[in-house]
Design goal:
Elements: H1 2-7, H2 18-27, E1 33-36, H3 44-54, E2 60-64, H4 70-75, E3 80-83, H5 90-99
Parallel strand pairs: 1-2, 2-3
């Protein structure tokens, strides 16, 4: 994913921990948030709900390998959900759309 984001000219920050992701968002400056559903510390669904309590405008994109979780993720506040593996450019196109 990092290589494709770099090639697309999209600036990003990565973290492997859900709590850190929420702290990073709380500091501000993010136009789009991309969260894996199964992050350690605090999962993506929990983070999305916390973000939505404070900000109902920022797009939140979820990533999961479990297609059956898509509807629950949307209910938890995700704007869109990508299903792994991410094989084509659709997710880059979607991210660029939200960044315009």
């Amino acid at each position: 994913m990092e290589i494709k984001l770099d090639r697309a000219g999209i600036q990003y920050d990565f973290t492997s921990d859900g709590k850190e992701a929420l702290e990073m968002f709380s500091r501000g400056g993010y136009s789009v948030v991309v969260l894996d559903q199964y992050m350690p510390g605090m999962n993506g669904n929990m983070i999305a709900r916390h973000i939505r309590e404070k900000n109902d405008q920022v797009p939140i994109i979820g990533i999961t390998s479990d297609e059956t979780q898509r509807e629950q993720m949307l209910e938890d506040g995700f704007t869109d959900v990508f299903i792994k593996p991410l094989r084509n450019q659709d997710y880059i196109t979607t991210l660029k759309k939200f960044l315009e």
